[in-house]
Amino acid sequence: xxxxxxxxxxxxxxxxxxxxxxxxxxxxxxxxxxxxxxxxxxxxxxxxxxxxxxxxxxxxxxxxxxxxxxxxxxxxxxxxxxxxxxxxxxxxxxxxxxxxxxxxxxxxxxxxxxxxxxxxxx
Length: 122
Known about the structure:
The structure is a single chain. This protein is an alpha+beta fold and 122 residues long. Helices cover 11% and strands 20% of the residues. It is built from 2 helices and 5 strands, in the order E-H-H-E-E-E-E. It has a 5-stranded antiparallel beta sheet. The longest helix has 9 residues. It is globular and about 40 Å long.
């Protein structure tokens, strides 16, 4: 009997330019932001998603990197929407560097909105 592995959809992303000034004050860091939006607890260790680790072994992500989707045959004019991916310090995605990663690793890079303490919902 042959067991087939399901292919995980991958997306081509590139490092985003001019993002060093961006921050998520609520999450206090882009890796924490990624964990929150991806549904992980803050104390969970996350693997770096850079494809170099498919060959060289796993590294733990210690930061979040801003990326954008690259143009493809299906979509030659993608939006300028920013995403966060978890990476280690060795694999910070340089501006314009392109890598292919699992689509599920992308989370929205818009900063979280702070909750107002004592605010009532109507």
